[in-house]
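Worked example 4.2. Below are the chains of a multi-component assembly; read each line carefully before continuing.
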Amino acid sequence: MIVNTEIKKSFLASAWFMFLTFPIMVIKVNTVSDTIEWRWMNMVGVGVGAFFLSMLWRYLLVKKEMGGKKEKTDKPSLLQTVLGQRRFAIPALVILGIFTLVFPHLFSMYQTNIMISALIYVMLGLGLNIVVGLAGLLDLGYVAFFAVGAYSYALLNLHFGMTFWVGLPLGGLLAGCFGLILGYPVLRLRGDYLAIVTLGFGEIIRLVLENWNEFSYGPSGIANIPKPSLFGLDLSLDHKTIYLFYILVALVIFTIFVINRLQDSRIGRAWIALKDDEIACQAMGIDKAKTKLRAFALGATWAGMGGVIFAAKTTFINPASFTIWESVIILCTVVLGGMGSISGVIAGALLLILLPEYLRDFGEFRMITFGTVLVLMMVFRPGGIVENVRKTYTFKR
Amino acid sequence: MKPILEVNNLTMDFGGLRAIDHLNISINKGEIAALIGPNGAGKTTFFNCITGIYTPTGGDICISPDGGTKERINGLKPNVVTRKGLARTFQNIRLFNSMTVLENVMIGCHPVTKSGVLGAIFRTRATQAEEKLIVERSYAILEKIGLEMYVNELAVNLPYGAQRRLEIARAMATDPFLLLLDEPAAGMNPQETLELDELIIKLRDEDKVSILLIEHDMKLVMSLSDNIHVVDYGKKIAEGGPEEIRNNPLVIKAYLGEEIDA
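Applying the procedure described above to all two chains together yields the following structure tokens:
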């Protein structure tokens, strides 16, 4: 009975698609001979394709619902159980570490550069994870802090000749201050309202950078930003890139370390409590304002450091690199990867940045694939690639 | 005996609606007091005023935890009020659902601990010691409340009665001198209510907290309370021991309506 109705629904869907695509897929005006070509085969193709896709969709949905009934517990996935055991986790980490170390020597400069971009996004994702994943503050203007970091390094270098190693903490610090500046007025907002305000903030920063020519050199941007130097040695471009890659790996490890410690600390728990229930959180004696500001400032600091590295990597920045689209991508890495889960966010960032890069051969289709993957993920695995699992405590008693 | 909580002429207006009208209530140390009244009488509003969720329109709320000098706490933020030693539970359960039972109680330890961001990152010795203390303290509280078998369970997966008790455990972790319970027995079966009764007395006797509860289960209220305050339309209509309240004509009128003379 169920199968019958499903077939009927799929059939209707395919009929509707055939009707919708009729004018563009079937009718074609041949301008040379002034005749109309009727391409009926296309219609059949659309119909059959839509029918099967619809059936597949329905099948997966039914399967998901069945699965949902069977186990509603929050069991960790197979991967998590395997990695949770020491004898698997340590070799896996060692192999990953060796692979990372030899990566720039094994692959071409092109690959290394892509990896650097991906790792920048890993850092950004982990930073935003503090704000969105842990504290539950939907921030759509995260790229603003990224821009602050990038521009602070570029401008400090231009005017005062500051090096990368001075710029990195300063960029982070400045972005952190901007985090506080944004955080303060939005303390009372949550959910959609917060998202809209942060969105506006992101656009303000971009527009200021674009129009304040005396300060930021407007749309023409700032060029010749130096890459980091190694004890004043004169490195070739390739070596500089490899060096930057290693710096970035070290920073990502540092980020993972910090966030891992934060999320199971008193502060981390306060963030999660704030996300779960703001009123109860306050009733437990947690200062809402302080906790939110901390999340904003820390998240922004990481974005700022990411921005400094981005500026050093591309050696040229202009406001076009800091559009709302970047914020959306970073948010996607967090949501797709799994809110609040470190390994999830890393996986999400690598996937979201590397996939479109390697799908370049598919040209126009890559964004469609990208979109489809996002939609399917959210429907069938809303918790993300790696769902966050809370720490467990054991008691001898 | 000096009261630990003294509320004088408390008034709360929402626009033109007077939810609480010159209410006077005082709670003594070691007392279990109940606040009862028909639906919409302003009981939960009263809690919200005391705990800082609402700022009262008028009146005074004063506390003196050790019977010493009085401190006015009107209009303080909820987190400050909690730090001063008033902890509450909620009528509609408000647990942190994505956290485990233990972590829920650990959150309650927030006001009595103080490690910050840097301490967490560098995991200093002080932070480690504090963290250990939090875990042990929270577990001890869970044992007392009888939830230790759920330690690592997510709060959202707990049965209803256990969720209500977890709210009490979480409130106890903030180390209060006065515990405000908003309908702790709502939705519980008779067995669970009986256990709750024992639990509340245990908390009073062993942890030396005073308790003010809002409750509709009259059997529970009558068996527990030393003192009962009855409110209707934001005004206090009666106060006294269980026996007094049971026979008070004003209370009967508020709950059952007036008798019509034939």
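Take a moment to check your reading of the output against the notes. Residues 40-70 of chain A form the longest helix (31 residues). The beta strands of chain A are 27-30, 35-38.
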